[in-house]
Write a structure and sequence with these properties.
It contains 16 helices and 36 strands. The strands form 8 sheets. Strands 29-26-25-24-33-32-31-30 form an 8-stranded parallel sheet. The protein has a 6-stranded antiparallel sheet with strand order 13-15-16-22-21-18, with no helix packed on it. Strands 1, 2, 3, 6 and 9 form a 5-stranded antiparallel sheet that branches. It is globular. The longest helix has 29 residues. The chain is of the alpha+beta class. Helix 7 crosses helix 10 and helix 12 packs parallel to helix 14.
């Protein structure tokens, strides 16, 4: 077997061995062409036909070198690979060659030919691409507002017919700080760095890796006359924020290729105070919908709260210790197959994938969830809201059976899935290329009909069981610019909007049942401001992670996200120290969403639950429960204030969790001591964020 995928897996930060890199060749720059083979292949040649713009043709053949195979950011030789492809990876190799891309407009046709130990030959089909080059184009960018583009800096990457990218620069004055770009974990002022706007699942260490679940091509420029900008696109944008040239912010963006060679991308420029800039941005992309005051109470969850008995036990422990809780998120509730049925529930699958009603299920008394509605009613009587975990995928591993199999067949039949090109020039259902739930099918929730098909299967949970909200996890699974959505648009344009539509779909479900659209997402993009609440994603229990999370919240707030929180003191790995736990708990009382959570640990001892009582037991620190009680009761007293201030935020654009520079851009300590903030109009928060600090 020999395979070449021109676009690779779509991993935004890694080049696969069997892809073309770069995907759009640039004249005079290196071009790598690679293939993957089975272990019996002993040699691979590249057959290349180059056709110049004048029609002259050149044919050549060249051998490929054996290389360590990489796929989806993982190295096979000595590294790790997601289990979905591990067995295949062990018996396959990588081959590649690097050449210099020819002049712009040159058309390249190529294929790979392999030879095996048995002297048999194989080959790929022929592939085509065209060489590009950068050229000046003053018309490449459209400007809305005051034009701040540096004269003479606009250029486009073109093959002579269509444009693939546009590049331009903005001048930065001395002393200006550049802040925002969505949820960023490493710092406030990004001047002197480079970043991009890709929705990406970075599992832990987001601050060190400088990747994010929730990017936006929007920023404030603070410290001079006050301005900001928004690149009006959902495609990938790269920002060099004074890293290569301290006095300039270089922007490079993918654009829609057009037959006439034009590629205008619009840039909004805003002027004024940070609040003025943010308000103008939100007027264009949408602002938050006000959520009910109960979202400001404590949220509690643990991945090992995977039975009705355990959920109720934890609720009772909160009551016994005098620590109020307002929401419980149940992650491990479902059959881990359909994500619509409670584990152990008995029911007859619907062959056509039609939704179930609560009366269709029987819940065994000795099962994990003997009475889901009774449990929710019980929690409601305790003034606790209930949220269920979700994933926007049709799981494929292990091989689906029963309702999961019927749902997958129905999704294909009903035409509600994202698709990708196949080798025959047609389309097939896209299979998740990420490492989490590999090969799963993915509904196109950007399509109203497909979103309704998907959420109707969950309606009984809201209408009959009484669920109050959903944890809309894992919105980062759309990889590849070649994906095809139901409206015909491609992945390069639509992938970033997928998590926005995901939260919207569940919010619409809740609204249609007369409930507030309370979703709890980790992924998003421009437009996410209008859809529910967010948390900072998966992180370890370390002081670094604590600080990274606070940076994320402040940057998200500066980008228009109102309802935001993080897993208090982290959710993964070893338990935090008592000091870290209490410092994080105290800080969390003064962010919009206060919630703790813990990762699944296979019920091993000692427990890694992040509950105050387990933390007290495992650390032996008797301060934890009384201190947490005081902090959470303080939070309860703040709920009316937070609800009032959130309303003010939505009306004015002034963030609820507001970085100091928002009100005092010239204040030096806003930058030297960045992890401080205003909470509404009347509170200033300065948490302890270093081990041992007093």
């Amino acid at each position: 077997m020999i395979r070449h995928r021109p676009f690779g897996s779509g991993h935004p930060y890694s080049v696969d061995t069997d892809q073309r890199a770069p995907i759009d060749p640039v004249a005079g720059e290196p071009l790598t062409l690679g293939a993957r083979t089975t272990a019996d292949v002993t040699a691979v040649d590249l057959e290349l036909v180059s056709t110049a713009p004048d029609g002259s043709e050149r044919r050549e053949s060249m051998p490929l070198a054996s290389v360590t195979r990489r796929s989806r950011g993982e190295t096979v030789d000595g590294g790790h690979l997601a289990s979905a492809q591990a067995r295949l990876a062990r018996s396959s190799g990588g081959w590649a060659t690097t050449l210099v891309a020819p002049p712009a407009g040159t058309r390249l046709r190529y294929r790979f030919v392999s030879r095996t130990t048995a002297s048999a030959e194989g080959s790929t089909r022929w592939f085509e691409t065209t060489s590009h080059a950068w050229r000046a184009d003053a018309e490449g960018v459209g400007v809305v507002g005051e034009d701040r583009i540096a004269p003479g800096t606009v250029s486009v990457l073109t093959d002579g017919t269509a444009v693939a990218r546009v590049r331009f620069a903005l001048d930065l004055a001395e002393g200006e700080h550049v802040v925002g770009f969505g949820e960023r974990y490493d710092r406030l002022d990004q001047r002197g760095t480079s970043l991009d706007s890709v929705v990406f699942e970075q599992y832990k260490s987001q601050g060190a890796e400088r990747k994010t679940y929730l990017p936006m091509p929007f920023a404030h420029v603070v410290g001079g006359d006050g301005w900001g900008f928004h690149i009006r696109t959902s495609r990938r944008v790269w920002f060099d924020i004074g890293e290569s040239d301290p006095a300039r912010l270089w922007i490079e963006a993918e654009v829609q290729a057009s037959d006439d060679g034009s590629a205008v991308i619009d840039v909004d420029f805003f002027r004024g105070s940070p609040t003025d800039v943010l308000r103008a941005f939100l007027d264009d992309v949408g602002t938050a919908q006000e959520l009910p005051p109960w979202v400001f109470r404590l949220w509690a969850s643990g991945n090992e709260w995977n039975t009705q008995a355990e959920v109720l036990r934890q609720a009772e422990l909160h009551d016994a210790h005098g620590i109020p809780v307002g929401s419980i998120v149940i992650e491990a509730w479902s059959d881990e197959s359909t994500f619509t049925a409670f584990r152990d529930a008995q029911y007859a699958p619907t062959p056509d994938g039609a939704p179930h009603r609560l009366s269709d299920f029987t819940f065994p008394p000795d099962g994990a969830w003997p009475d889901p509605k009774g449990m929710v009613d019980d929690l409601h009587e305790r003034d606790i809201r209930v949220h269920l975990w979700q994933i926007p995928l049709l799981k494929a591993r292990p091989h689906p059976t029963g309702q999961a199999k019927a749902d997958a067949a129905a999704a294909v039949r009903e035409g509600v899935l994202i698709r990708e090109p196949d080798a025959r020039g047609g389309l097939r259902p896209y299979r998740n290329r990420g490492w989490w739930f590999p090969l799963s099918l993915m509904p196109d929730l950007t399509d109203e009909r497909a979103a309704r098909w998907w959420t109707e299967k969950r309606r009984y949970l809201v209408d009959e069981v009484g669920i109050d909200g959903f944890k809309t996890d894992g919105g980062e699974h759309a990889w590849g610019r070649e994906l095809v959505y139901l409206d015909g648009r491609r992945g390069d344009e639509k992938n970033a909007t997928s998590p926005v539509a995901y939260a919207q779909a569940y919010g619409d479900l809740l609204r249609s049942s007369g409930k507030a659209p309370v979703t709890f997402s980790r992924a998003g993009f421009t437009g996410s401001q209008t859809h529910g609440a967010f948390w900072a994603g998966d992180e370890n229990s370390t002081w670094d992670a604590f600080r990274w999370s606070l940076y994320a919240g402040l940057n998200a707030a500066a980008s228009g996200i109102v309802y935001w929180g993080w897993d208090i003191a982290g959710f993964s790995g070893d338990l935090p120290s008592a000091e870290l736990y209490l410092r994080a708990m105290a800080a969390s009382a003064f962010v919009p969403i206060m919630q703790y959570h813990s990762e699944f640990n296979h019920h091993r001892s000692p427990s890694r639950d992040r509950t105050p009582w387990n933390m007290a037991e495992q650390t032996g620190d008797d301060r934890i429960i009384p201190a947490t009680r005081r902090i959470v009761r303080l939070r309860e007293r703040l709920v009316p204030y937070l609800a009032r201030e959130a309303r003010h935020t939505i009306a004015t654009g002034s963030p609820l969790m507001r970085p100091v520079w928002f009100d005092h851009p010239a204040l030096e300590s806003a930058w030297t001591d960045p992890l401080q903030w205003f909470l509404g109009r009347d509170l200033f928060v300065s948490p302890v964020v270093k081990d041992g600090e007093r």
